User: Fold this.
Amino acid sequence: MELKKRIDVAAGRRPADLVLKNGRIVNVLSCEIHAGDIAMSGDRIAGIGQYEGEETVDLAGRYVCPGFIDAHVHIESSMLSVPEFAKVVVAHGTTAVITDPHEIANVMGAEGIRFMLSSSKYCPIYVYFMASASVPASEFESAGGELRALDLHPFLSDRWVLGLAEMMNYHDVIAGDPESLDKLLLTDDRPIDGHAPGLTGRDLCAYVTAGIHTDHECTTLEEAREKLRLGMSIMIREGSQARNLDALLPLVQPDTLDRFMFATDDKDVDDLLTEGHVDHIIRRAVASGMNPVHAVKLATINPARHFGLDHLGAVAPHRLATFAILDDLEQCRVDRVYQAGRLVYADGQVLETDEGVRRPKMLRGSINVHWIEPEHFAINAPGEGEFDVHVIEVMEDRIDTGRSIARIRADGGQLHADPKRDLCKLAVVERHMASGNVGLGFVRGFGFSGGAIASSVSHDAHNLVIAGTNDHDMYVAAVHIVKIRGGFCVVKQGQVLGEVPLPIAGLMSTVDAQTLSGQLRVLHEAAQALDGKLRRPFMALSFLSLSVIGELKLTDQGLIDVGKFELIDLLVSGAPGGM
Amino acid sequence: MELKKRIDVAAGRRPADLVLKNGRIVNVLSCEIHAGDIAMSGDRIAGIGQYEGEETVDLAGRYVCPGFIDAHVHIESSMLSVPEFAKVVVAHGTTAVITDPHEIANVMGAEGIRFMLSSSKYCPIYVYFMASASVPASEFESAGGELRALDLHPFLSDRWVLGLAEMMNYHDVIAGDPESLDKLLLTDDRPIDGHAPGLTGRDLCAYVTAGIHTDHECTTLEEAREKLRLGMSIMIREGSQARNLDALLPLVQPDTLDRFMFATDDKDVDDLLTEGHVDHIIRRAVASGMNPVHAVKLATINPARHFGLDHLGAVAPHRLATFAILDDLEQCRVDRVYQAGRLVYADGQVLETDEGVRRPKMLRGSINVHWIEPEHFAINAPGEGEFDVHVIEVMEDRIDTGRSIARIRADGGQLHADPKRDLCKLAVVERHMASGNVGLGFVRGFGFSGGAIASSVSHDAHNLVIAGTNDHDMYVAAVHIVKIRGGFCVVKQGQVLGEVPLPIAGLMSTVDAQTLSGQLRVLHEAAQALDGKLRRPFMALSFLSLSVIGELKLTDQGLIDVGKFELIDLLVSGAPGGM
Assistant:
């Protein structure tokens, strides 16, 4: 019996399976660094002290941290499949993540969540789930899935599902919307993650009293302080877009350490490869003056305790033998990683994963578009002359948008893009139910001189979104995304100049991280032929449909005034923007 | 629906049921003290900020703490029934305890635990249970109950049972004894309390790797430091006998705060009435220089988190409206107490408990003694002349014992007590199964000039224990305890001078705390007729049978050499001490 064997090893009656010697243990329980042999039995730590084993590894003074935990991440945002994501992050010392499969759930519904659950089973890291609570994000987006309380209920019986994912629709929670309350009640006191950007005062109290006890959207110290007081655990987020560490770190004091965790939320493959994952947050926190043991605590025992993962988070007997071994603590430089007693990363290589053993079957294709023709991208003018249209203003590295008005002269009965004034046309083609919905509008900020770009990644409904200077290139780009079953492409003069296929739900690649990163580099080089001025035009494009943030957005249903939370006409007074 | 109503209250759309205004909130989450109205809806906190309610209470600057939690207590040691214990401690701000019904389980087995569970249902405090793991304490004690893994299993389905109580038999755990391992395994990752006095090194690792994650037996800083490093949460105990705060407090640092809790373990009715309960520990910690908010944290959110009681432990929306309102924070002076939104203690009075609603049926009588006669207390000499006998040395305020040897001259074929040399006879009469077992020996330290005292409280098997200067008074005392169905008595020259009935399992009284305290005072006054020199002779008497601590102990089976953990003869070489 495993327990008997482990006790025998701890008591010194039989040799350990493996002993790590000469390590410096980063102890997040006693908040100190100390020496000690670590004796393992099976997947657990048996004892710490003086031990001999069947096998002994000399750590030569390296630091032994508990494996890092990302408290909140949407794996889809890496554009990698779960096993490939796992391989990238385990090399950075991450051994567990708590993920909300919110993106794939918007595309595939419950089937998407099941796919993520099954594809996470043969990974070098533990992938825990929160049941996606906000699908779709709003009634103005035609998503591929809709998850009501009854749809989420079965997932809460899965031992890898820890609770309910971020309740993004905080308006509904505060209003006491019955469907939202049903979701809260079905969790039966399990953890519920929050998403409450800028929420304060009574509204915040209403959100917290509903049982929502984390937030990863704090951007200011004052906001985080209020949430901390009200009992929320604060996830300090450093992702690709949103980076809140500098703002929030001053709030983290020794006696409130246990109320904070680190999270990445959304981080793309390139940032993961170049910066790292949770290790990057630790590194940055330490560089800002945080005690390294405290920083490691936020990345290990704190999320483990919050989510009830009692076997993780610390180097101590009885817990899983899951370690990030560091060459350098301040720099958080990962030398090797043990997961449940097995070496899974060393010498720059991820070792012996089980992924070859069994692979989940592929998802069905997710791109289900009603037959489209070039004329579907035409915006008909209501007559001759000039017309004022609403224009979305896109900005580098922001997920919100501005808005403006532009005057366009009708030409052949239509309103065209005008590259000279940096006015592109924007189209959103519904791609889940083949409804034929196409939303049309204008966008400024890409700076394209010609051509079009298209993407099947477009938060949160992930319909096809196409920005271009002419209808034909937009048409070709849209059709090409359908052909490659989702992804990104660049088109100019009817020719596809570059592509990145993302066949898993139109969100994720099937290739490894390095290959994907290479594909993305080639894509961005191809996009230079369009003379765009944004550094990351596809990232910008992917947020133009998110109807819950920014001033003006376009979904397949048409133009959304986000402030008024209603559909508006494309013409300032005139015909509707949608067809 | 309660959740909807609470959200409405928090959002300010409807008035709170009750608002506490002008309080200073002791916030154990943000580790600060701040202002704020506390709005309640039903049994929960809806919001903190600015609120109006159906009813408003002005706290006039008083401190609002979360209700205190005793992380580990044997309620039986108070000698009060659960409802009476609850009334005493709620007046000291305690609103929840985690109890191990270890004493009654030793007397009544599973029936005793069920009785405690049912009698805790109509109390002004929450009584959570840990399933008693060590009944009996050793094979040398004839207890009234024996709880094996299969006996404990049903209790773990009870929502008020949080896990497995202290694994006192640490020798068995470390040895990998199958029955102990079965108990550990059946908890299925729920909390398991530890009891590991002085355990260190590999043995301690073996104990921890078995899944045991708390300890309340630390007496030195070094001992606690090692346990902390290995992942144990440290319960700092201040009870009637064992007081460890002074020794351990220096280990509690701001960044390790979350690894400590306060507990009383065993505290009798008089100490509860005069000193207080958890409030007394807070008061002492603050007097020793601890930050008061930190001290309150060890008494509230820390045990709540450890035991997964997410609704308790903090003043924050969504949690139960359970508060200790203090006049003075440093002195921890309790003005009033709210439990789940209701005022349960104010103006020195415990208010509106439910105890009248329904009382559990009484336990069967627990004193089941084989017919005894005066001659059962005789110690026969093996012949004429003088004999060396082992003597238990009893000490004030200690539960361990010393040992010595005394030479006694046979008189009429028997060995008698010798008050001139402070040599009493000691008898332990089995009282559960009417087996007729009587253990006999000698004890020094009581200093009685005549008479006898008897008790049915004798750890852990709680057999009858009688110390006296002559066989007849010992006989009368033993018979009197049977007559009063358990308790304490004092006898001199065949007359009962004083008694305290403890009819609930021979451990607990049915009267209220003040009455019991009065009875105990009268008892101790009566005992003065015996000229004893111990301040608390009954406390000393009650530990003379505990076979797992001290040097020499007496059980109904005979004299125990605790170091060798074996039965020995009463005569240094000669006839056995038992009959």
Confidence is low (pLDDT under 50) at residues 575-579 of chain A. Residues 141 and 557 of chain A are 7 Å apart (CA to CA). Chain A touches chain B through 70 residues (CB under 8 Å). The longest strand of chain A covers residues 386-393.
